[in-house]
Amino acid sequence: MKNNEFDLALEMAKNLDAKKIEKVAHGNKLSVALACLNEAADLLDNLKEFASSEELTKVIEKIAELK
Amino acid sequence: MFVKKSCVDEIASSLEENMSILASEPEQRAKERREKIISCLSIASNVLDQIGLEKEATVVANILRKFADKEFGEVTINDPAMPHSSEEALKNLKENGWVFSISDVKTKDKSDENNTQDEDPNTYSESAKGQSISHERALHELHKHNLGDVENILEFENEHGTGDHAAEDVLAWLGY
């Protein structure tokens, strides 16, 4: 790594905000959960499991509000 | 030198092959969908639990349990030693020092005196010998044993693949 690249990395590291990182990680996990739930709901619909799919949709709506 | 095959036979056998592939496709697709649903719900439930959304995680876990029970029914290995749920296994562990539902004090009759424990046909793993279970069912068992998170599923799939499994292997992986 060149010196100026190292300095830049160091500067960026100093500015890292743990809370911000945690928030992003939390948001990412929420996205993963939402993606999984959406996929499961679609597949349940395909298998005509409408009751379970509806239940999942309610959970999805609730989680989407938190994002 | 060459045996000439009737082209009618060839066409018929090719048609038969194609028809059997077509017939099994919807079943295969439905099986893949069911596996995917279990996998997605399991991951979502664990992620929600990790980020503190316990209520939502429980709802998703209940949907998963309902779906899996509907698809596979209850565990059917006929062994009185087998706990019916992870809760029962934990209770047994607390009370008896092991997860099985029977006491480990063996009541031997005289004719059994020469038998070793491994030869007892009523042991848990013995009852699973020769039985084969689908990958979906194996995932369901992992979930029932609280091992349904992504890491465990991937570890299980790395070791045993995603096809059918010997029930013995699954039990061994679950620690029985």
Structure description:
The complex is a heterodimer of chains A (67) and B (176). With 67 residues, chain A is mainly α. Chain A has one domain. Chain A has helices spanning 3-14, 18-46, 50-66. Chain B has helices at residues 7-50, 54-72, 86-96, 124-128, 135-144, 150-160, 167-174; strands at residues 132-133, 165-166. Chain B has a two-stranded antiparallel sheet with strand order 1-2. The termini of chain B are far apart. Classes of the chains: A mainly alpha (67), B mainly alpha (176).
Q: pLDDT under 50 segments of chain B (min length 5)?
A: 104-121
Content of β-strand of chain B = under 5%
Quaternary organisation: heterodimer
Mean pLDDT of chain B: 73
- The rounded Rg of chain B comes to 22 Å
Structural class of chain B comes to: mainly alpha
* Order of strands across the main sheet of chain B: 1-2
Gist of the model:
The complex is a heterodimer of chains A (67) and B (176). With 67 residues, chain A is mainly alpha-helical.
Give the arrangement of secondary structure elements.
The complex is a heterodimer of chains A (67) and B (176).
Chain A: H1 3-14, H2 18-46, H3 50-66
Helix pairs in contact in A: 2-3
Chain B: H1 7-50, H2 54-72, H3 86-96, H4 124-128, E1 132-133, H5 135-144, H6 150-160, E2 165-166, H7 167-174
Antiparallel strand pairs in B: 1-2
Helix pairs in contact in B: 1-2, 1-5
